C-alpha cells in the first residue's frame, strides 16, 4: 500500500516538475534556466569564499537579454501556422480541435516590433535585476567609482541596450551620477565573426555540421513530426516539416520568454526534449566542443580578461590604488558558448551524435541551462592573506553561482597562477591571424 502511495506521489511530483520546466534551448528565459533551489541561491546575491580572502576585482561577460525572434524563425513559423489555418478554413473550422483549434486564432504578437532580434522590455528587466544582484554581491568589499569601472559591448543593438540597462541599474544602486560610456568592440565580443577559416570549415560547411543537419531524419525526430501532425489532425504535407523544427522551437521560445506563454510551445511541449537535442547538437558542433577552432578563437577575449587580472594583481601588490575594479561586457550566445568550451566546462565524455538522443539524455551540454538569454560568466579576483602568506585566487561564477575551474576540481577558489598555467595556451598560443587564415592548400 505504502509502496503504491510512494509511486503515485513520485508520479505526481514528476509530472508537476516536468510540466513547469520551460527549457527552449538558447531561447530559454534566464530565470527558467534554473531549478527552484538554484534560483533561491542566486537571489541571495552573496559571494561565497573563505574568511581570509577578499574580492578586489570582478570581470563578467553577459549574453544580451530576452529578444524578439529572427526574421527567418518568424517566416517559417508563420508559414507552418498559415497552412494549418488554410486547411481548416477549407474543410471547416468546426473540425479543428485541441491545439489546432487554439492555433486558428494565433497571431504574431511580434508583428509591431520594428527590428527582428531586438531586445525586449523583458530583456531590459533581466539586465536591471542582474545589475542589482551583482551590485549587492560586491557591496561588502568593493566601493565602485566611475573611473575604475568599464562597460564594453558588441556593436549590436541588443547587446548595447543590454549594457545600457545594466549600467543604469548598477550606477543607480550606488548613486553614481557620472556618465560612463559603453565602449563598442566587435573585435572583442564578436571574435567568432570575420574568421574565414571558421566560416569555411565549420559554420558554412554542412558536412562539418552533419550531426545537426541530419537529426530531423532520425527516428526520434520523425516520430515527433508524425505525432505533432496527428495531434493537429492535418495531412503530413501541410503539417510541420523537418526543416521547420528549429525555427518553430526558436520562435516558441521567444514567445514564451517575452509574453510568458506560447500556444506554439504548448503544441510541442510533449516533445520538447527532442527539440532541445536539436538545439544542443547545433551548439555542440557549431559553437562548443565539436571542433577545436570554435573555442580556440575565443582566446582573444579570454586573454584580455586574464591580462586585465594580472594588471590588477600587479597594481594591488604594489599598493597602487587606482586599478580597475569592475568590467562588464555584453555579447551573444556565440560569445559565451565557445568561452565555456575553451574553459572546459560542461564537457561530456563522448561527442553528441544525431542518432543517440536516448543515450545522451543525461548529457552535461544542455543549451537551455548553459546559454539562456542573459547567461553570464564572471571572474572574481580575490586577495588572500593569513599570518603565513599572501596570494591571489580566482573564482568563477557561472550564472551567478560558483563553478569550479577544471584546474582546481572541487575548490571554489583557485590560485590565479594555477588557472593561468592550466590555460597556458590562451596566454601563449593565441594568434588570431594564423588561426583564422585559410592557407592556399586548404582551398
Ligand atoms: C483566441 O481565442 C481564445 C478563446 O477561444 C481567446 O481567449 C483569445 O483571446 C483569442 N486570441 C486572439 C489572439 O484572438
Ligand atoms: C557600429 O556599427 C555601425 C553600423 O551598424 C557603424 O556605423 C559604427 O561605426 C560601428 N561602431 C563601431 C565602434 O564599430
TrEMBL record:
Gene Ontology CC terms, in alphabetical order: plasma membrane
Transmembrane residue ranges: none
One Pfam short name: His_Phos_2
Reaction equation(s) it catalyzes: 1D-myo-inositol 1,2,5,6-tetrakisphosphate + H2O = 1D-myo-inositol 1,2,6-trisphosphate + phosphate; (2R)-2,3-bisphosphoglycerate + H2O = (2R)-2-phosphoglycerate + phosphate; 1D-myo-inositol hexakisphosphate + H2O = 1D-myo-inositol 1,2,4,5,6-pentakisphosphate + phosphate; 1D-myo-inositol 1,2,4,5,6-pentakisphosphate + H2O = 1D-myo-inositol 1,2,5,6-tetrakisphosphate + phosphate
Signal sequence range: 1-18
Top-level class of the enzyme under EC nomenclature: hydrolase
Subcellular location: Cell membrane
SS bond list: 53-384, 252-265, 408-414
UniProt superkingdom: Eukaryota
EC number: 3.1.3.62, 3.1.3.80
Keywords: Cell membrane, Disulfide bond, Glycoprotein, Hydrolase, Membrane, Signal
GO molecular function: acid phosphatase activity; bisphosphoglycerate 3-phosphatase activity; inositol phosphate phosphatase activity
Chief subcellular location: membrane
InterPro entries listed in its UniProt record: His_Pase_clade-2, His_PPase_superfam, Histidine_acid_Pase_euk
Family: Belongs to the histidine acid phosphatase family. MINPP1 subfamily.
Name of the protein: Multiple inositol polyphosphate phosphatase 1
Lineage: Eukaryota, Metazoa, Spiralia, Lophotrochozoa, Annelida
Amino acid at each position: 500500500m505504502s509502496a503504491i502511495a510512494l509511486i503515485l506521489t513520485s508520479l505526481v511530483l514528476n509530472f508537476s516538475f516536468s510540466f513547469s520546466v520551460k527549457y527552449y534551448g538558447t531561447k530559454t528565459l534566464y530565470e527558467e534556466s534554473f531549478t527552484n533551489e538554484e534560483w533561491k541561491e542566486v537571489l541571495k546575491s552573496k559571494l561565497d569564499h573563505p574568511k581570509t580572502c577578499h574580492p578586489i576585482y570582478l570581470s563578467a561577460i553577459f549574453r544580451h537579454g530576452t529578444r524578439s525572434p529572427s526574421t527567418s524563425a518568424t517566416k517559417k513559423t508563420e508559414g507552418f501556422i498559415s497552412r494549418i489555418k488554410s486547411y481548416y478554413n477549407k474543410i471547416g473550422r468546426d473540425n479543428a480541435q485541441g491545439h489546432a483549434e487554439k492555433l486558428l486564432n494565433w497571431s504574431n504578437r511580434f508583428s509591431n516590433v520594428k527590428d527582428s532580434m531586438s531586445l525586449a522590455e523583458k530583456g531590459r528587466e533581466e539586465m536591471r535585476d542582474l545589475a542589482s544582484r551583482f551590485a549587492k554581491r560586491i557591496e561588502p568589499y568593493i566601493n565602485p567609482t566611475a573611473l575604475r569601472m568599464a562597460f564594453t559591448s558588441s556593436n549590436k543593438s541588443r547587446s548595447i541596450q543590454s549594457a545600457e540597462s545594466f549600467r543604469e541599474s548598477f550606477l543607480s544602486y550606488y548613486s553614481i551620477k557620472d556618465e560612463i560610456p559603453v565602449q563598442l568592440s566587435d573585435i572583442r565580443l564578436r571574435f567568432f565573426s570575420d574568421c574565414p577559416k571558421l566560416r569555411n570549415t565549420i559554420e558554412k560547411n554542412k558536412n562539418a555540421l552533419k550531426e545537426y543537419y541530419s537529426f530531423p531524419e532520425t527516428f526520434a525526430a520523425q516520430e515527433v513530426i508524425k505525432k505533432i501532425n496527428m495531434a493537429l489532425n492535418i495531412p503530413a504535407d501541410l503539417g510541420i516539416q523537418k526543416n521547420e523544427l528549429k525555427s518553430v522551437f526558436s520562435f516558441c521560445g521567444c514567445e514564451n520568454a517575452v509574453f510568458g506563454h506560447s500556444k506554439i510551445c504548448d503544441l510541442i511541449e510533449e516533445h520538447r526534449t527532442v527539440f532541445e537535442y536539436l538545439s544542443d547538437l547545433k551548439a555542440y558542433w557549431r559553437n562548443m566542443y565539436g571542433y577545436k577552432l570554435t573555442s580556440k578563437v575565443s582566446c582573444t577575449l579570454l586573454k584580455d580578461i586574464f591580462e586585465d587580472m594580472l594588471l590588477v594583481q600587479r597594481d594591488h601588490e604594489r599598493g597602487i590604488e587606482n586599478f580597475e575594479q569592475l568590467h562588464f561586457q555584453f555579447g551573444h550566445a556565440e560569445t559565451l558558448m565557445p568561452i565555456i568550451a575553451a574553459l572546459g566546462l560542461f564537457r561530456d565524455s563522448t561527442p553528441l551524435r544525431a542518432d543517440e538522443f536516448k543515450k545522451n539524455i543525461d548529457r552535461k551540454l544542455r543549451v537551455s541551462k548553459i546559454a539562456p538569454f542573459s547567461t553570464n560568466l564572471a571572474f572574481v579576483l580575490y586577495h588572500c592573506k593569513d599570518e603565513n602568506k599572501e596570494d591571489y585566487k580566482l573564482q568563477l561564477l557561472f550564472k551567478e553561482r560558483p563553478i569550479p575551474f577544471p584546474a582546481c576540481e572541487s575548490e571554489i577558489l583557485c590560485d590565479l597562477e594555477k588557472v593561468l598555467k592550466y590555460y597556458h595556451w590562451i596566454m601563449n598560443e593565441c594568434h588570431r591571424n594564423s588561426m583564422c587564415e585559410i592557407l592556399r592548400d586548404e582551398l
